[in-house]
Automatic annotation (TrEMBL):
Protein name per UniProt: Transporter
Membrane topology category: Multi-pass membrane protein
Superkingdom of the source species: Bacteria
Residue ranges crossing the lipid bilayer per the database entry: 12-30, 42-64, 85-115, 135-157, 169-192, 212-238, 250-274, 294-317, 338-361, 381-398, 418-443
């Protein structure tokens, strides 16, 4: 059934799609990967790979969704009826179900930090011990995860326009405003230029084969491609909208947030003489220590955690939406029921991940905690497989004339750009994804 809802404006779609892309990958994972992978040289590679791999994949998903006006599973079935290609959509639904189950756990940690910061309970505590207590407390971890899911469910249940689009219209501008505040404060610290130099001045001697692969993987993970979320979001887009311009805006916003994240974090880290290689603990352990040593640090830490929450929520909306849309099949009256059913099931599935740093810390799957095992399955297997299948599907199953029509190709320059896009999608993206996939499994 054709979607009964549409984005009210192009800006609403761009903010929602950018919100889906700008999440933990851009604000949590990106800074610590940059810090451990060579700084400016990594950022430059990430930018190039985003344009050469992430953008072509994003446009491919946009074409699938907008051309069919169907949610993910039905879109693939409509384009390739009587085949197994619709399993790309089903894979995306399953991936988002599992992804949100542990993503919501991190969302709960952020809510816990906001509560502790707002109530003044973070002062005077060793931050590594504080983080350990937050993630190991079973009632606190599960309760915060539930609260995060309830917020996500409430927004998605309200619908595309009244829920997702309306929320993103407030959350995304607020996110950029908060980032600007933090960035200005960070850049005015003594010694900040050393952090700027680390982040923006490429030193290719610091690059390793592993960091190049990280940059390649981050380039398509950071845009939410590979799980067909953008297929569902673009299905709510009118035929008159320019997909290339919209995709360019989303990629631009994503790169801008990555730039802001680096300029907000690394100058502050270097200002205090700390190392930027803290890994995943950079935001939860090192940054609170950084903010503690600057005027009004508690306030700026609270601002950062609110920003972090906004980015996490906007991504969570898109993960729940693809599942709800695949079940409701465009019928708005069924949306609320499925939002609550699916959302609560995701919460239940995420409880083992929430407990995996405390009472279930002894429970392992192939030597990994439940949380880490779920993360590995999604990030290292399901998302690369989904991205590869989409890169193969678009040039194989969609006619060249239809692709050109959807991308509004009408000039000689447009035809040349179209040929480059198709080349990147057909050959470069699949090859890059295979390399990243093999590397992530430790086979390279």
């Amino acid at each position: 059934m054709k979607q009964s809802e549409q984005w009210t404006t192009r800006l609403g779609f761009i903010l929602a799609a950018a919100g889906s892309a700008i999440g933990l990958g851009a604000i949590w994972k990106f800074p610590y990967v940059v810090g451990t992978s060579g700084g400016g040289a990594f950022f430059l590679l990430f930018l190039l790979f985003t344009l050469a791999i992430g953008l072509p994949l994003l446009l491919g998903e946009f074409i699938i969704g907008r051309s069919t006006q169907r949610e993910a599973v039905s879109a693939y079935r409509m384009i390739a009826p009587g085949t197994a290609w619709h399993w790309i959509g089903r894979l995306g639904v399953c991936t988002c179900f599992l992804l949100l189950s542990f993503y919501s756990v991190v969302g709960g940690w952020i809510l816990s930090y906001i509560f502790l910061g707002a109530s003044g309970q973070m002062k005077g505590q060793p931050y590594d011990q504080l983080f350990g207590n937050v993630i190991a407390n079973p009632l606190g971890a599960v309760g915060a995860q539930l609260l995060f899911m309830l917020i996500t469910i409430w927004v998605v249940a309200r619908g595309v326009q009244a829920g997702i689009e309306a929320a993103n219209k407030y959350l995304m501008p607020a996110l950029f405003l908060l980032f600007l505040v933090l960035m200005v404060r960070s850049l005015t610290l003594d010694g900040a230029l050393q952090g700027v130099s680390f982040f923006l001045m490429p030193d290719f001697s610091k690059l390793t084969g592993e960091s190049i692969l990280y940059a390649m993987g981050q380039s398509f993970f950071s845009l939410s491609v590979g799980v067909s979320v953008m297929v569902t979001y673009s299905s709510y887009l009118g035929k008159q909208e320019n997909l290339v311009r919209s995709a360019g805006s989303i990629v631009g916003l994503n790169l801008l947030v990555s730039l802001f994240a680096g300029l907000a974090i690394f100058p502050a880290v270097f200002s205090l003489g700390l190392e930027p290689t803290a890994g995943p603990g950079l935001l939860f352990i090192m940054l609170p220590s950084v903010f503690e040593h600057i005027p009004f640090g508690s306030l700026f830490l609270l601002v950062f955690m609110v920003l972090f929450l906004f980015a996490t929520l906007t991504s969570a909306f898109s993960m729940l939406e693809i599942i709800v849309a695949s079940l409701s099949k465009g019928e708005a009256r069924r949306r609320k029921r499925y939002s609550w059913i699916v959302g609560l099931l995701i919460f239940l599935l995420g409880i083992p991940s929430a407990l995996s740093f405390g009472v279930w810390s002894e429970v392992t799957i192939l030597g990994k905690s439940v949380f880490d095992a779920a993360d590995f399955l999604v990030s290292n297997i399901l998302m690369p497989v989904g991205a590869f299948l989409i890169a193969v599907f678009v040039p194989l199953r969609l006619k060249r004339e239809m692709l050109m029509r959807e991308l509004q190709v009408s000039t000689n320059w447009g035809r040349r750009a179209f040929a480059v896009w198709l080349l990147l999608l057909r050959y470069v993206a699949p090859f890059a994804i295979i390399i990243v996939f093999i590397s992530s499994l430790g086979l390279l």
